Amino acid sequence: MRKLALLLPAVLLCLVVTPAVLAQGEGIIEGQVTNGTAGAPLESVAGLEVTLYEVADGAAELMATTTSDGDGWFRFEGLATEPDRSYRFQLEYEGIVYGAVSGFPADETLLRVAATVYETTASDSNIAVDRHHVIVDFAAGGALFQELYIFNNTGDKIYVGEEGTTLRFSLPDGAADVAFSNAEIAAHFVETDGGLASVRPVMPGQGEVMYSYDLPYDGTALTVSRRVIYPTSSVDLLVANTGVQAESPQMVYRGLSGGDETAYQHFSAEDLPGDAVVELRLSGSPQGAGVPALERPLWSRGLQEVGPAIALVMGLLGALLAFALMRRGRSSEPVAEGEVDATSQRGELLHLIADLDDAFVEGHLDEESYHQLRAKMKKRVRDVWAE
Using alpha carbons only, what angle is made at residue 333 by residues 331 and 336, rounded to the nearest 5 degrees? Predict the structure, then answer.
């Protein structure tokens, strides 16, 4: 099995503090490594090398290295506890590097942390798609497809794949100008013969990937054929109702969503097996497509225009921030990793909340969807402030 040594997000960092009794400079970090894979040998967490870095003023400095004991416990002593510095502990198991960062809580000198490691597998048998959302918009000379996959590793092992790739996503023939929701996600994908593939290991649990692409469309007819790679619980397809007729043999037409100027033809399907083929057939010239070029995704227009569509696909509630960041537009330069700070994230979210209020006042959004969306957005704002 090929081992991948890629840095994963913090697996978990649980803080348990005790009253401070030591002076500054005598901080202690205690941690335990556990194995989240059922049936993993108890000795798997013993003898792991754990490295500690001090992070201050944007720079990381190696502090110490220790080894976990037979029960996975490790300990670092003699640490500064000032609020302007934090600590990152890092360890490797089965070729996967785990890491987490935290600082000492105010007036505390004991920081307890926990890390969960997993066994690895090259099999994708536990990979499934919970929800797949597709939005199709039209402009001069083409169609813009925007897709969100909410996938799930239902097993208790990290999927590392084979031949250097893990998650795969199909693209239709002729797809061009593939763009991801941010530069960090884009850096972890490569193009393949049939579409896209990730090079990152896949942790147990849920994740999401959002991207867009263009297809040439001259207003006569276009058949878009896609292979379903993983078992998919539900698919929602929204096609802008701009005079283009849409149909799909594998999907059920659910009617129009939205108002006269923002209506979308809604199709859906459930319980699609892996390797199934789904077709979307388009015909007819889109009305008013002679002006704008395909430059920006649908969600860059503001919720007052697309509120009904967004409300319909709000299985993607957790992706609100990514939607907000894509408001920058595909015509702009890619955002460098780390460039979007917490302030800009909060600004984007607050802008979306204002758009949402306008959409509700103008009657573009029903009350239930409005309150649900607003609550989720406000929670994300609070989370960003906390982070």
Answer: 145
Distance CA 376, CA 380 (A): 6
What's the distance, Cα to Cα, between the start and end of the chain in Å? 37
Question: Where do the domains of the chain lie?
Answer: 27-117, 127-386
- Does residue 104 contact residue 57 with C-beta atoms inside 8 Å? no
pTM score of the predicted model: 0.70
Tokens of 223: 């058949």
The Cα–Cα gap between 84 and 267 comes to 52
User: For residue 297, how far is the Cα from the chain centroid?
Assistant: 17
Cα within 13 Å of Cα(230), Cβ side: 25
| CATH class for the domain made up of 127-386 | mainly beta
pLDDT profile of the chain (387 residues), mean per 10: 41 33 69 96 96 89 96 95 90 94 91 95 96 90 92 97 93 92 86 92 93 92 94 94 92 79 84 94 76 39 42 40 40 36 55 63 65 68 58
Residue 332: alpha-carbon gap to chain centroid: 21
Q: What distance in Å separates the CA atoms of residue 229 and residue 92, rounded to the nearest whole number?
A: 31
Do the domains at 27-117 and 127-386 have one common CATH topology?
Answer: yes
**Alpha helical stretches, state H, the chain:** 183-186, 303-312, 320-325, 342-361, 367-386
CATH no., domain 27-117? 2.60.40.1120
Beta pairing partners, 280: 224
Nearest to 240 by CA among 280, 205, 195: 280
